[in-house]
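Hi everyone, sorry if this is the wrong subforum. Our group has a chain we'd like a structural model of before ordering constructs, and none of us has done structure prediction before. Sequence below.
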Amino acid sequence: MSIKHNKINTGTIGFFNFARGCGLFYVVVCHTLLYFYTITSRLFFNLGAGLMAMFFIISGYGFWIKNTKKCLRVQCKLLLKPYFITVCLILLAKFGMSITKHRSFWQFGGQYIFSYLLAVNEGWEGTILGLEVDHISLFWFFWALFGGWIIYNTISHIKKEKIHTCLVICCVLMGWILTRISEVWVYTLPNMLIIVGFLFIGHQMREHQWLEKEKLTALEYLLLFVPAFITLAFGQCDMFSFTWSLGPLDILGSACLGILYCRFFAKLSLLKRKSKIMDFMQYIGSNTLRLLCIHAFEEKVVPWYRLGYLFPGKTYFAAIICFVLRGAVILISLKLIEFINKVIKRKRWRRSRLPIAVE
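Answer:
Right subforum, don't worry. Here is the predicted structure as tokens:
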């Protein structure tokens, strides 16, 4: 049976669950490999930067303008609430481990207090109130998306399209300038500004139904592939460490790569012939934020690197075992969270059905 495409007709970011699922899979694989290998390939990081751009573009695809208070409230609930819940769980786990292992919490856990309160990226040197400060790891994504949404929502209240576009470009350039001033920023401020451009792209893709075009023109492909190729071949991108070796050209190349990812995964999502793997990836993508929180927790709490000591000389085998084990931990944790949420909803429903006592 031949595999055919349906006509692309997207309505919400739920359409991109398969893309987000594949992106999360890539993230976990890369983070696992970094435990056992020193990776310096520019292609490795540049492909990852394109995937991160894709995540932000997809978020922009689901953008709807709101008043400032509502936008702030929604983003706090969607991003900061799970962030701080996960942070508290990490600190509690570290505190429990310090008790069971009879060691100081301030030395083996206290370093996360200010790193999470200030959302510091990698590169900080020194202490705050005598405590070491670690980086927030993949949690930079939450703060960047939070700030990016607030900034872009504010800009979107401006009705004049030219001014709106100019402000977006200014945000991106200002974010890059900040990366040249310092390698360390609280709350990933440069990324907050840079991803405004990615959100803008996603928003415009939906507004102009650009993704629904079954075929692109030769000029459109050229405008996408040339910057993407330059970045992949000659650039060096890493959003976590604020690295853009080619400057704004790398940001543009990552954006183009993100758009191409969106087109590619959109086509795959519409294949008439489905598979269990695609269904699984869509399930993963539909739980993106939960899985990122779980991944951030197990990354800080579980010493996966020790698997390398159990299999000396077999680094590849240790990496495979590590990926399988942490994948199992992540999925089991997700199922546990879903179960707890169902129990809580059931109890709330039962309470709402109770008769109201009348005096």
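For your construct planning: Residues 1-7 have pLDDT under 50 and may be disordered. The chain is about 70% helix and 0% strand.
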